[in-house]
Amino acid sequence: MGNIVVSPHDKEGQHHMMATPTSNNPNGGSAATAKNKSEITVLLLGAGESGKSTLFKQVQFFHGVGITHDQERIELIEIVRLNVLENAKNLVAATQHLNIPIEQPENRETAKLIINSLNTNDLEDPSWSKRLYSLWKDAGIQKAYENREKFQLYDSTEYLFENLDRICSDKYVPTVVDVIRTRTKTIGITDMKFDVGDGKQLRLVDVGGQRNERRKWIHFFNTVDAVVFLTSLSEFDLNLYEDNGYWRVKESLRVFNEVVNNALFYKVPFVLLFNKRDLFEKKIATKSFSKYFSGFNEAEEKNPVACIEYMTKLFLNEITEHPLDTVSVKTLSAIDHDNSKQVFEEVKQFIMTQQHRE
Amino acid sequence: MKMNEYKKDEKITTTNNNQLSQISNNTTTNTTTNTISSLSNKKINSSSSNNLTYDNDTESSIEEGIYSRDSSKPRVFLGDGGFFVSTRGCVINNSIVIILAVEAIFYIVVEIVFLVLSFITPRDTWFIKRETLVLITLQFLAIILFAICGFLDAIANFTDYFVPFGFVLMTYSFVEVIVCVLFPILVYSNGKIKNGKDSELEQFLMNKRTFTILLDFARRSYCPESVLCYRDIERYKLTSKKNRKKAALKITKTYLKTGSPLELNFPKLNQTFEEYSQIINNSNNNQSLLETSLFESIQLHCLDDMRDVFDRLKNQSKETRNILEQWKLQQQLKEMDDININMNNNNSTTITMQQQFEDDSYLPNVESIDLSNINNNQNIFKIILPIGVFEIDNLTI
């Protein structure tokens, strides 16, 4: 994969958007830009479903790229609807798997159709909005949803089902929030560039988080100027997508350890973002946090600040090589537009001041 | 079949000959009327067998014309006496058998060639292969019924008491219409067409030029594995049974093994790899295990994974967007053409039906059909309904 041929269409496409894949030759073009300090490359790293792409989409949105225009969001109808179908399928499959029967007979009929024949075009029919919503409200499905830590389900499930009346219509145009909320597994590496003042450009690189995707990160390691590592706070009760039975927090800690202690990053500013704070606060209200962490004081388990503090310690303990004064820790709720704008601004400031100090 | 008829005809001829000898004193006209009456007294089967072989008649009449010019040449199709001997049905002689055999062999060869072609074809969106298999089986059965059982006088004669034995072949052609026309229409009009239609992405992958665009883009954003895997599975489906094991092993080793450079982003990869390895290793004993659909779920997963890359490609390459736009236009044009053809067909049926109504104005009960209804309503149902009524009236006459 080292020899990458750049075909003519690459250049042709560059005018359409600011975010373009630059020729990612690790030894060629990028090495040159590393010397050229007008470009700051920031990597978004983290395990699967930690919110890297959500933050990436938000940043794109602040900079008027991609999803700002109706026309470009229309292209994403298919993906939003696929998300609805996948969520519905996963829930129905889970009722089977967990042995929780769907209660209403008509909902059982709907479930059968979802598994066997329903496709995204069918969702143009508004009658599906009622049927899917009634399925969602079925006691069996709700019970399965309460036990969602036992199977793989997207975080956006509830949001999508509550917005079915908009989605199941032939006039549907996804809103920015819809697009931010939908989950697409990132494959490979993608990047975008934007101006940050002082004649400098920031190049934000988004990557896939699953195990096989992580091996691709290394292509960027030697050109990096800052690392933003994301981890999901709400994953404390979840198992991995790629290896069901493996605790997500353990995986995140392991990946964090590998990245933060990598010799290439000793001198690089490092930001640790605890994402999905909104989901986390909802989750600890109903679920026991201390059940998963033996070292945690049970009395404090309903206090989000204490929990996050504990998680921070857990992660910072992994740092053995990297100088601690160039590590910054923040919490984030990437689906919240204002919050991610504010946090990203802080991250940018942190990185810029670190760059100056050098 | 021919032999059988020939035998029957021979019987008839002999009886006729007897009659002929009996009434030899009478005038020729009398003989003819007599033979005709005696023929009609015979069982209907003789007339039905005449019906079945009437296709010889054109050839016979041409031959009769030639013969009348130059009577020195022997006749090919007809027996002694030529066309105008009405005392017998058809005649089988060696030259007819040879001609029919050559004709049959020609058609069999054509059929075999098309059979082979249909089984080499990789894509079978409309399940033509299955259909062909069913038809061939039916054809075989019909031939066995007709050609072999036809030789057993007991069976053939007994059947003839109820229905003419020649109906076996007619029934076969009727079944053929049901299997190849009626059944597919019923099944596919049931909304299954939607699932058979390829998505934009699949179309993009099937086309050689666009495939290269996608692969190149995927390579540059470090995710060629799903594109390559999709291609390799597509190739696997085309691999001969002999090499299939090798191809399957290659796919599992390249894309499903944890740690391989082109490992897929797949949940529980280890487990999947083990499952596939087991199936492939077991295939030594049982060849049928390695079906073309073996990797179906993996391929679907590849398509799923490619969605992300494909969206990025669409966003970033103007060329891709143009190509897709063009395809969409072509698709729309095609759909519009289809609608136009349908509409034209409907119009033409109405016109011909109207003409028929006018021409057959002597038919009784015509008044009971609302003609104005046909003229005013463009709706297909309303056009079809009067036709149905019309046909029923026609039959009752």
From TrEMBL, chain A:
Pfam families reported for this sequence: G-alpha (PF00503)
Any GO BP annotation: adenylate cyclase-modulating G protein-coupled receptor signaling pathway
Binding positions (Mg(2+)): 53, 186
Origin: domain of life: Eukaryota
Family annotation (Gene3D superfamilies): GI Alpha 1, domain 2-like, P-loop containing nucleotide triphosphate hydrolases
Compositional bias annotation for Polar residues: 20-33
CDD domains, alphabetized: G-alpha (cd00066)
Transferase as UniProt keyword: no
Chain positions recorded as GTP binding sites: 49-54, 155-156, 206-210, 275-278, 334
One term of GO molecular function: GTP binding
Region of interest called Disordered, as start-end residue ranges on this chain: 1-33
GO cellular component, one term: cytoplasm
Keywords per UniProt: GTP-binding, Magnesium, Metal-binding, Nucleotide-binding, Transducer
Protein's UniProt name: G protein, alpha subunit family
Organism this protein belongs to: Naegleria gruberi
From TrEMBL, chain B:
Transmembrane segments: 96-120, 132-155, 161-187
Source domain of life: Eukaryota
Pfam families from the UniProt entry: RGS
Compositional bias per record (Low complexity), positions renumbered to this chain: 13-53
InterPro entries in alphabetical order: RGS, RGS_sf, RGS_subdomain_2
Ranges for region Disordered: 1-56
PROSITE patterns xrefs: RGS (PS50132)
Gene3D superfamilies for the chain: Regulator of G-protein Signalling 4, domain 2
Biased composition (Basic and acidic residues): 1-12
Ranges where the RGS domain occurs: 200-308
UniProt keyword terms in alphabetical order: Membrane, Transmembrane, Transmembrane helix
Name under which the protein is recorded: Predicted protein
Organism: Naegleria gruberi (Amoeba)
